[in-house]
Amino acid sequence: MITTGYIEQVAQRLADDIAEFQANGNAVEIETIDVNNSEITVKTTKKIFTEDISTISMLDAEGSVIYDKDVDLSTTSIEGISFSIPLNVDVRGAE
């Protein structure tokens, strides 16, 4: 059986691999990446967007996609938006 401790190590490795956050293919500065047990939370700085947001992604240093999601987020040119995305590493059969 895969242990909880190992799953937490995998979560930390995944968090360490996150190098870039993108909204609609444009980089958004990552403010923090926190790991709590097997949950990773990626928070970005606030940014003003001139178009609605349809995709968000996280990439590793080589540009490989770690996380990708279609979204429907309306924006205005007078509001800044920051993201807080939780990821949970879950393995079936873990203790």
Attribute tags:
95 residues, mainly beta, four-stranded antiparallel sheet, three-stranded antiparallel sheet, 1 helix, 9 strands
Classify the helix fraction into a percent range.
Answer: 10-25%
Order of helices and strands: HEEEEEEEEE
Strand adjacency order, main sheet: 2-1-6-7
Name the overall outline. elongated
List the domain count as a whole number. Answer: 1
Helical segment tally? 1
Radius of gyration: 15 Å
Oligomer status: single chain
Low-confidence region ranges:
none
What class would the helix/strand composition place it in? mainly beta
**End-to-end CA span:** 7 Å
Q: Major sheet, described briefly?
A: 4 strands, antiparallel
Summarize the structure.
This protein has one helix spanning about 5-15; strands spanning about 20-25, 25-30, 30-35, 40-45, 45-50, 55-60, 65-75, 80, 85-90. The chain is mainly β and about 100 residues long.
Structure description:
This protein has 95 residues and is mainly beta. It has one domain (4-88). The chain is built from one helix and nine strands; from the N terminus they run αβββββββββ. It has one helix at 4-17, and strands spanning 20-23, 26-28, 30-36, 39-44, 47-48, 53-59, 65-73, 80-81, 84-88. A four-stranded antiparallel β-sheet has the order 2-1-6-7, with no helix packed on it. Strands 3-4-9 form a three-stranded antiparallel β-sheet, covered by helices on one side. The protein is elongated and about 50 Å long. It starts with a helix and ends in a 7-residue tail after the last strand. The mean pLDDT is 92.
